[in-house]
Write a structure and sequence with these properties.
Layout: H1 4-14, H2 22-42, H3 46-56, E1 60-65, E2 68-72, H4 74-86, E3 93-94, H5 101-116, H6 120-141, H7 144-148, H8 152-169, H9 173-183, H10 204-220, H11 236-241, E4 266-267, H12 275-290, E5 298-305, H13 310-314, H14 317-320, H15 326-329, H16 333-343, H17 348-351, H18 357-363, E6 366-370, E7 382-388, E8 393-398, H19 411-424, H20 430-438, H21 446-453
Helix pairs in contact: 1-9, 2-4, 2-6, 2-19, 2-20, 3-4, 4-5, 4-10, 5-6, 5-8, 5-10, 5-21, 6-8, 8-9, 8-10, 9-10, 12-16, 16-18
Protein name: MmgE/PrpD family protein
Organism: Pigmentiphaga soli
Domain MmgE/PrpD C-terminal: 272-432
Length: 458
């Protein structure tokens, strides 16, 4: 019987640029643009400077870092770029796998393509390969990794990144199989960061890239790994989901490769918050805009959320109501909903209000209930029910989270988001970068893209 590693390796080895439909390539280019914009905005925050300082203490190299003039060794650059794309938690998510695909696949594809002297077209194909692999591997778990305590991006994306790096390194089929087996001993990432909003989550996508590149280089030299990295007795799923693999659809890991493109299902975030909160935030903003009540008249607020949101953005409720940082605020449903109700917007600036007494006072009135009508994980639904002192109840529901494939934001909105994020960092060449990324298939050498992306803001 063909193992999952063998199926994915065959797909990766055989995948040609022209095998990917033009519409999928266009969507992928917009995902790259979105990721790059977030990376630029991240360069203005302390966590970016801290990561750069730490990684600069190691031996240098010539790999590009987005928005920074400093060149680093390949794996250090991939790690830092992952931190930049994911650091604001504004990056895209493949919903059913719950994997942040661009924050892991973009740094890996960029770093490996630059190192190997590949074309922009080859880089984009490898990036899409990574998304397809990560989405399917995550689909097996259907969001349960988060509930057990693993961060799917840190764990699942490492395997996708091994395939990206292996593809761009020119590995043959057998070595692509081995790379996945090798990375099984490296993939990591737990959700303990959520206990206090610590910043270690930001490392997970880039670390997945580091693991993937390392595994691919080892496989290239003949190092071996198990062929049953996923379905084996001590493979990924048995160790992370439990020994009874009959509960899980292992076929989802390789089903419809090359005919159904999961890249088209990636959700771009319209707001800098956890995907599981976006529908509720939008519902709160909609209620604010209806202007049917005063904030002072609110008796209570109830949020309906998917069950999987409870551990991630709702509990422990007392701590969620008092986020101790802007980062913790992004994973606080009470804060996010209160902010939306009061201000009618939710952006990077609003996160700086995490200690605002008015928002926190309203957050104390926010409770939650598991949504009985959710379509999770295909869609991350949300509903807000406001009860006023006079007994009136006013509600708004978002059945499909904005940005999902069935409720997408437009290409123009993606460009606007990129330009707004680039403006945070005063990037002088934003228009040129936009054109280069959206026309990446025409780039003869990914090194030119690396040079462009690494230009320091004005």
């Amino acid at each position: 019987m063909t193992s999952i590693s063998e199926s994915l390796a065959r797909f990766a080895f055989d995948l040609a640029d022209d095998d990917v439909p033009p519409a999928v390539r266009r969507q992928a280019a917009h995902l790259l643009l979105d990721g790059a914009g977030i990376a630029y905005a991240s360069t203005t925050f302390d966590f970016a400077r801290q990561t750069l300082a730490a990684l600069s203490s190691f031996e240098g190299g010539d790999s590009p870092v987005i928005g920074m003039p400093r060149r680093l060794a390949l794996r250090d650059a991939v790690l830092l770029n992952g931190v930049l794309v994911h650091g604001l938690d504004f990056d895209d998510t493949h919903l059913t796998s719950v994997v942040h695909v661009t924050s892991s696949c973009l740094p890996t594809a960029l770093g490996a393509a630059v190192a190997a002297g590949r074309s922009g077209r080859e880089m984009l194909t490898a990036y899409i390969l990574g998304i397809e692999a990560a989405a399917r591997l995550g689909n097996v778990a259907r969001g349960e990794l988060n509930q057990i305590g693993f961060h799917p991006t840190g764990v699942i994306a490492a395997f996708a990144c091994a395939l990206i790096a292996g593809k761009l390194e020119g590995l043959d089929y057998e070595r692509l199989v081995m790379a996945q087996g090798i990375v099984l001993s490296m993939a990591a990432g737990t959700r303990e960061y959520s206990s206090d909003g610590s910043s270690s989550k930001r490392l997970h996508p880039g670390w997945a890239g580091v693991c993937g590149i390392t595994a691919a280089r080892l496989a290239k030299q003949g190092f071996t790994g198990p062929r049953t990295a996923y379905e084996g007795q001590f493979g990924l799923y048995a160790t992370h989901l439990g020994k009874d693999l009959s509960r899980w659809d292992l076929g989802a890991a390789s089903r419809d490769l090359g005919s159904q493109w999961e890249t088209a299902q990636v959700a771009i975030k319209p707001l800098p918050a956890c995907q599981l909160s976006i529908a509720c935030i939008d519902a709160a903003i909609a209620l604010h805009r209806q202007r049917r009540f005063d904030i002072a008249d609110i008796e209570s607020v109830e949020a309906l959320v998917p069950e999987h949101a409870v551990k991630i953005v709702c509990e422990p409720i007392a701590r969620r109501r008092r986020p101790n940082s802007r980062y913790a605020a992004q994973f606080s449903l009470p804060f996010d909903v209160a902010c939306g109700l009061i201000h009618g917007r939710f952006g990077l600036a609003e996160l700086e209000r995490h200690a605002d007494p008015q928002i926190l006072a309203l957050a104390d009135k926010v409770t939650y209930r598991v949504d009985p009508d959710t379509n999770y994980p295909k869609h991350f639904s949300g509903e807000i029910i406001v009860t006023l002192r006079d007994g009136r109840r006013i509600a708004h529901r978002e059945s499909i989270n904005r940005g999902a494939a069935d409720n997408p934001i437009s290409d123009e909105d993606i460009v606007s988001k990129f330009l707004a994020n680039a403006a945070v960092a005063n990037v002088p060449t934003a228009d040129r970068i936009q054109r280069a990324l959206l026309d990446i298939d025409a780039l003869e050498d990914a090194r030119a893209l690396g040079d462009l992306l690494s230009q320091c803001p004005a």
